[in-house]
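Task: sequence in, structure out. Protein: DUF2200 domain-containing protein.
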Amino acid sequence: MSKHRIFTMSFANLYPMYLNKAERKNRSKAEVNEIIYWLTGYDEAGLQQQLAQKNDVETFFAQAPKLHANTSLIKGVVCGVRVEDVEDPLMQKIRYLDKLVDELAKGKAMEKILRQ
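Result:
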């Protein structure tokens, strides 16, 4: 079976889509980055390196320093799919990031988005 198309997409191509979604709702690039740092363990330098290398989404998550311990608290529906029920581990990580950016765009407070 072939890989899902998003797995092979460059994270550098996906990242501006997250930014656009947030910025259309008057949220900032810094907030999107904070979500990515929280979820993946990347810091600014690590994220910029991933973007510069144009690594695919699969590599982006495979090289992530450490997925946050509270990811199990991310619940809800993204694109009609309940994130906690996604069976493929990589797709679930992608859906987690989608869900967090969706919550940001919907105006949720960062403390709630970051499950603090």
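The mean pLDDT is 94.
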